[in-house]
DNA sequence: AAAAAAGACTGACATATATCATAAGAAATA
DNA sequence: TATTTCTTATGATATATGTCAGTCTTTTTT
């Protein structure tokens, strides 16, 4: 975990333009920039733990992070994956609560840490920015409600198909007819996204493969028939 | 659905003190009060539908409302129940999206409608109030994440036990050793809260009864052994 | 009050999925 | 390179829960 303080100011940061900081006026960008800390993280490292106190927010520069909760049976429920331009941990800060979930690096990452005060000051002195954050929060809530509904009303097969489609949307690289999911997740992690047992994922993946919906290339998954998966996922019902 | 415009100003409203409006300065309370509309609703009426455009927020004066999503199989997933002092629909407004869920009256209710402009103006001119709303939103997100995790990792039996405990907490009236849930929900609605089939709820409820955890009095449920239910719900694991 | 509709309940049954066990393959470590 | 550990894969098995069907009860409507 290496620190590059000040390294690349936010003013020049490419991933900032993807983020909620995109339209921040220069003055505020500078406040953030002066206070941020860019840190490199390796796969497997923890960004924060459920139950601990948030001291700031994280802005992902590169890499992938999984945000998850650990259930009482020890299994991880992955709430979402975050990538370049995404903010992490602002919900706990705004909720004035300890983290309600944990975050772990899934793909080597560079992440800026912005201390609480700098972030909140900017927020409270810039209503448009505050609005944007709140909008993101509201959207996240809607997404989570959707996930809950899917979790209770859809089968594992449907949910897995849906997760694959989403992974394709976010991490897919096109190649002819196919779409390769360019992100290495263990079967256990995929199970954590779907909310099922690892063995079920493995079994269903080989079923999907047999049905020519996907192809398996080691840990990587290639989507061969997106529409087929969509049909299976009950996406359009 | 009867309208009592202006009826009982917010300044004097008892349920306001329970709400996010609690600490609003007088000036802003008046803005809200001048614009609000108190409406009486009967059980079964719809407050808003998923997919429609929000025109304001709702503040519950009395009664109970269920907020739910309709899954592709037609079943309702109840996201939460709201009662006196609760706000409804602000998430869609702040997310600048159509409603992501629907709301229906479960117990006859009096509800104030506050038009979008009055609400947003107050919000954007009162940072502490905006903070409080955002805090509530963040908290809701955490709760939803917890529900998702429970939905994927716990059994129906555990989830039903947990729902009963929560209903006891929110709508329970004490009576000796027992706690009566003073809210009439159909078995189908309880199933919607748990995220399961109606028959499963019925079966499990009679099992709980046989195990002396609860008692059934028509539609009403009486909790006889809260700790037993908590143990069953894996609450402390 | 009678009729109709909706809801609660019980039983039979099918099956998706979790769990356990074991083996093969891949990756990490010595 | 050898050894150990982790991950993927496959099979066998148990069971919780969904679905369908039918009866009884309660509520609503006429």
What does this structure look like?
2 copies of one chain form a homodimer. The first copy, chain A, is of the alpha+beta class and 237 residues long. Helices cover 41% and strands 28% of the residues of chain A. The first copy, chain A, contains 8 helices and 11 strands. The first copy, chain A, has helices at 26-35, 90-95, 116-124, 127-153, 156-171, 187-194, 198-210, 226-232; strands spanning 2-5, 37-41, 46-48, 56-70, 76-83, 87-88, 102-115, 172-175, 178-181, 214-217, 220-223. In chain A, strands 1, 2, 3, 4, 5, 6 and 7 form a 7-stranded antiparallel beta sheet that branches. In chain A, a hairpin with a 2-residue loop joins strand 10 and strand 11. In chain A, helix 6 crosses helix 7. The model of chain A has no long low-confidence stretch (mean pLDDT 94). At the A-B interface, helix 2 and helix 4 of A face helix 2 and helix 4 of B. Chain A binds a DNA duplex (30 and 30 nucleotides) through helix 7.
């Amino acid at each position: 975990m290496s620190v590059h303080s000040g390294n690349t100011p936010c003013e020049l940061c490419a991933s900032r333009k993807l983020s909620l900081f995109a339209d921040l006026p220069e003055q505020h960008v500078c406040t953030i920039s002066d206070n941020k800390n860019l840190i490199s993280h390796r796969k497997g490292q923890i960004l924060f733990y459920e139950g601990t106190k948030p001291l700031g927010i994280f802005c992902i520069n590169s890499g992938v992070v999984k945000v998850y909760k650990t259930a009482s049976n020890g299994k991880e429920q992955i709430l979402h994956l975050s990538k370049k331009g995404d903010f992490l941990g602002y919900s706990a800060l705004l909720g004035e609560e300890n983290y309600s979930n944990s975050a772990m690096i899934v793909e080597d990452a560079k992440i800026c840490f912005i201390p609480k005060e700098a972030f909140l000051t900017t927020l409270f002195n810039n209503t448009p920015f505050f609005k944007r954050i709140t909008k993101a929060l509201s959207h996240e809530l809607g997404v989570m409600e959707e996930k809950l509904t899917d979790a209770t009303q859809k089968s594992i097969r449907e949910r897995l198909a849906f997760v694959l489609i989403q992974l394709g949307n976010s991490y897919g690289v096109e190649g002819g007819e196919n779409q390769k999911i360019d992100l290495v997740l263990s079967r256990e992690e995929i199970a954590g996204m779907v909310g099922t047992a690892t063995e079920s994922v493995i079994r269903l993946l080989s079923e999907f493969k047999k049905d020519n919906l996907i192809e398996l290339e080691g840990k990587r998954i290639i989507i061969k028939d997106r529409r087929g998966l969509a049909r299976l996922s009950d996406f359009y019902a």
